[in-house]
Amino acid sequence: MNRHVVITGASSGIGKACAHAFAKLGCTLSLGARRSDRLQDIKENAFCHALDVTKQASVERFLAAAIAAHGPIDVLVNNAGLARGLEKIAEGTGDAWREMIETNVLGLLEVTRRVLPAMITNKRGHIFVIGSIGGHKAYLGGGVYCATKRALQPICEAIRMETLGSNVRVTSIDPGMVETEFSIVRFKGDQERAAKVYEGTRPLSADDIADCVAWAATRPAHVNIDQIIIMPTDQASPQLVHRVPK
Ligand SMILES: NC(=O)c1ccc[n+]([C@@H]2O[C@H](COP(=O)([O-])OP(=O)(O)OC[C@H]3O[C@@H](n4cnc5c(N)ncnc54)[C@H](OP(=O)(O)O)[C@@H]3O)[C@@H](O)[C@H]2O)c1
After folding, report:
1. Is 79 in the pocket of ligand 1 (CB under 6 A)?
2. CA of 86: how far to CAs of 31, 83, 187, 218, in Å?
3. What is the distance between the alpha carbons of residues 176 and 130, in angstroms, rounded to a whole number?
4. Atom 17 in ligand 1: which residue has the minimum CA distance?
5. Is the distance from CB of 33 to CB of 8 less than 8 angstroms?
6. Per the residue annotation, which of 22, 62, 97, 145 is the catalytic one?
7. What's the confidence (pLDDT) of residue 145?
8. Are strands 227-230 and 168-175 parallel, antiparallel or unpaired?
9. 10-residue block means of pLDDT along the chain (246 residues)?
10. DSSP label at 178?
11. CA 55 to ligand 1: nearest atom
12. Does domain 4-238 correspond to CATH entry 3.30.1490.20?
């Protein structure tokens, strides 16, 4: 598959797994994250560059460098995202809310709006959005994170309408529980608390999600996979998880 694939948040978890999956398909890659030193794992056909999606200048520098390295962008994987804390709304803090909204919603928009015009002109392109089951059903303490993921649904719908006739595809991949650094970030480095999230159950792996992304990306050009909701077999809803006690 001869495509230039740009992945945001490729330093860890799902983004990194997507990079490996697209590398296997023979794509050229542009990978961004704030911890750019962690992007170097994927050596073949990968251009690595610092990216903070919450900073417009950083987004511009990253995309300009990616296009200079590998030419027009064929696939954008909007993966960069995070949750902060698990506080109820009445106990939450503006700082955590702002970080989630600025990263998960505004950051995604800032990257996407700069990539879309060339896709429309070139009449080809595929935008991926990594949403969440939390965007379909809220959970206790996840109100603002879930709101950021819910917001991605009308954004995807609008882009599909706005690009109609230009062959641009828009796919939302909405996972349940995936074991990555997500919970460590959510609990600000508290490894023990993060490990409890996955205790006694079998979560999805980052590779499971990358599989879905790669599958959707390799459908024929006239086929758009709108949305994939993917859950571990042991999870029925955000907070209903089958666990085997130790
Ligand atoms: N794990 C789950 O259970 C789960 C479930 C549903 C959806 N998701 C979504 O999946 C996506 C990937 O998360 P993950 O599970 O793979 O977690 P992860 O292992 O913590 O990876 C998150 C990635 O996002 C990047 N990132 C965060 N803020 C960024 C910023 N301002 N600019 C650029 N990159 C940034 C991080 O890189 P740097 O820190 O190096 O910048 C990292 O590469 C997120 O959108 C998350 O909401 C995860």
Report:
1. yes
2. 29, 8, 8, 37
3. 11
4. 182
5. yes
6. 145
7. 98
8. parallel
9. 96 98 96 95 86 98 98 98 97 96 98 98 98 98 98 98 98 98 98 97 98 98 98 97 92
10. B
11. 31
12. no
Ligand 1 centroid vs 164 CA: distance in angstroms? 29
CA 97, CA 85: separation in Å to the nearest integer?
9
Q: Are 204 and 228 in contact (CB under 8 A)?
A: no
Residue type at position 134: G
Contacts of 152 (CB under 8 A, 6+ apart): 104, 105, 108, 129, 131, 135, 172
Residue position matching structure tokens 């599958």: 215
Question: What pLDDT is stored for residue 245 in this prediction?
Answer: 87
Residue identifier of the C-alpha nearest atom 29 of ligand 1: 80
Q: Mapping DSSP to helix (H, G, I), strand (E, B) and coil, where does residue 133 land?
A: helix
The count of residues in the chain is 246
Atom of ligand 1 nearest to the CA of 102: 31
139: DSSP letter: -
CA of 81 from ligand 1 middle (Å) equals: 4
Give pLDDT, residue 42.
Answer: 79
Residue 147, C-beta contacts closer than 8 angstroms, at least 6 positions apart: 101, 138
Cα–ligand 1 centroid distance for 120 (angstroms): 27
CB atoms within 10 A of CB 2: 8
Q: Which atom of ligand 1 is nearest to the CA of 80?
A: 24
| CA-15 nearest atom, ligand 1 | 16
Q: What is the pLDDT of residue 194?
A: 98
Q: 225: CA distance to ligand 1 center in Å?
A: 22
Asked if 198 is an active-site residue, the reply is no
Provide the whole-model pTM: 0.98
Contact yes or no for 47/22 (Cβ under 8 A): no
